[in-house]
């Protein structure tokens, strides 16, 4: 006599959420459900990463140390979250709940953190076997509020523990498995809008797939305020050679209510195996090549998840950068992204010109308005500006410290030379820097000072003032 699992998994994004941040895995040894949090795509990434870390547990005999294997797998997944958050501080706050069962015949290991739940229907009695890691549950435990009050408490979704990449205390237990047991793992998208009494009634439906479909239907009828995911798993007693062994998931088996293709349940059904015809040899033999294919699929899944994570966070890092350079009209401007292209596609875009939001009286800066020593630097891009505010500050420094003086009519070839010995000093061009620039250093400042000394010397000996060239000695105004 052999105890095995017969199971079904369903997931739905609900009627309010725009995406599904729940992830689920159901296999002959592993049942795992994670409810991601963090906004945008971060919650979905967190739940995927943790489920991917646990999925290999389904591929091998768990041995005697069920809790040790669960703890190690969860630690690996949590460590991956830590690395992702370290790479992008904007992801701080990303995390996921987790409720998972590792099945080993007459025993099973259970790991839990967060507010996803596990229930057990045994001998006609339906009961929750996990404890919510929530603020509201702590108030119930302390006798400060009742179960009825908790249903409408404004902070009922506040978690005290979750997988976020930081150290967290897990709840790990070993339970006895009995033939006839039925387990339900679900996210709070089911346990929230559907009462325990209604769950109990639905759990009496004999077929696991039909039961799972009914549970999703109840959550949607309750308003579907959140993603809703569930696994229904029966512990069945199979006499070798007389019954079809369970070697794959029943999720996505062709029933009328299929999970959407982008849902976590669809991904779970893709990672499980179809139910084969009755074998004439022990069930372990035909499952080995399929387990190899399952392992290969899981490796590919993990790679795709990491590539997707890398692409998403790489894009967020790139678009979080700004730099100052020139546009196609040779105007100084602020760009978002990084310089360069990939397959001919630019990795940046102009977000504002050199005036920004300064108003109509602001004069846009042409590249030829800048001192020659700095024109090349700006054309190549002043990088590592970080925020838009940093880039605007650089623009202001260019405007106040690097602009050439305006070109004037008196600096023309026809201007009469001053007689030698005249005591008056020549006019200093308006706007010429009188000291070294904070952007380019002392050497360029010395060059400006030397030019001024040469002009004074020429005037003293009665030579004509040299012609000023726009973009080299002065800038055109107007």
UniProtKB/TrEMBL annotation:
Its cofactor is Mn(2+). It comes from the Bacteria. Keywords: Hydrolase, Manganese, Membrane, Metal-binding, Protein phosphatase, Transmembrane, Transmembrane helix. It is an enzyme of class 3 (hydrolase). Residues 263-275, 426-438 have a biased composition (Low complexity). SUPFAM superfamilies: PP2C-like. Residues 244-290, 403-478 are annotated as: Disordered. Residues 6-235 form the PPM-type phosphatase domain. The chain crosses the membrane at residues 297-315. The keyword Transport does not apply. GO terms for molecular function: metal ion binding; protein serine/threonine phosphatase activity. This is Serine/threonine protein phosphatase PstP. It comes from Actinoalloteichus fjordicus.
């Amino acid at each position: 006599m052999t105890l095995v699992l017969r199971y079904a998994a369903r997931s739905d994004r609900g009627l309010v959420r725009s995406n599904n941040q729940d992830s689920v895995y159901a296999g002959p040894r592993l049942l795992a459900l994670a409810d991601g949090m963090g906004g945008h795509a971060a919650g979905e990434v967190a739940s995927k990463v943790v489920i991917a870390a646990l999925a290999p547990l389904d591929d091998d005999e768990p041995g005697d140390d069920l809790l040790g294997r669960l703890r190690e797998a969860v630690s690996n997944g949590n460590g991956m979250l830590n690395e992702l958050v370290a790479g992008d501080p904007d992801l701080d706050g990303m995390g996921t709940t987790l409720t998972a069962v590792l099945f080993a015949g007459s025993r099973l290991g259970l790991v839990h953190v967060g507010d996803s739940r596990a229930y057990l229907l045994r001998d006609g009695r339906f009961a929750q076997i996990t404890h919510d890691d929530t603020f509201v549950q702590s108030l119930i435990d302390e006798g400060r509020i009742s179960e009825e009050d908790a249903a409408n408490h404004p902070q009922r979704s506040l978690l005290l523990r979750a997988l976020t990449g930081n150290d967290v205390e897990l709840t790990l237990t070993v339970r006895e498995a009995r033939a006839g047991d039925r387990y339900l793992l679900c996210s709070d998208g089911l346990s929230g809008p559907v009462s325990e009494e209604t769950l109990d009634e639905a759990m009496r439906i004999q077929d696991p797939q039909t039961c799972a479909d009914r549970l999703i239907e109840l959550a949607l009828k309750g308003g579907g305020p959140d993603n809703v995911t569930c696994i229904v798993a029966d512990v069945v007693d199979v006499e070798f050679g007389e019954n079809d062994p369970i070697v794959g998931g029943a999720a996505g088996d062709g029933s009328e209510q299929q999970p959407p293709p982008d849902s976590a349940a669809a991904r779970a059904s893709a990672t499980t195996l179809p139910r084969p015809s009755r074998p004439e040899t022990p069930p372990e033999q035909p499952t080995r090549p399929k387990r190899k294919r399952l392992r290969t699929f899981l490796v590919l899944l993990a790679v795709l998840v990491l590539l997707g994570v890398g692409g998403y966070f790489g894009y967020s890092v790139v678009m979080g950068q700004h730099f100052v350079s020139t546009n196609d009209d040779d105007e100084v401007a602020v760009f978002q992204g990084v310089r360069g292209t990939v397959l001919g596609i630019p990795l940046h875009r102009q977000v504002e010109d050199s005036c920004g939001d300064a108003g109509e009286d602001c004069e846009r800066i042409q590249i030829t308005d800048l001192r020659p020593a700095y024109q090349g630097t700006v054309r190549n891009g002043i990088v590592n500006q970080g925020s838009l505010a940093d880039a605007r500050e650089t623009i202001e420094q260019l405007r106040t410290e690097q602009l050439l003086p305006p070109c004037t009519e008196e600096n023309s070839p026809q201007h009469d030379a001053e007689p030698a010995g005249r005591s008056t000093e020549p006019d200093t061009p308006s706007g010429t820097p009188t000291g070294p620039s904070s952007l380019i250093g002392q050497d360029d400042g010395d060059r400006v000072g030397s030019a001024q000394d040469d002009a004074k010397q020429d005037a003293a000996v009665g030579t004509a003032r040299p012609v000023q060239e726009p973009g080299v000695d002065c800038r055109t105004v107007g």
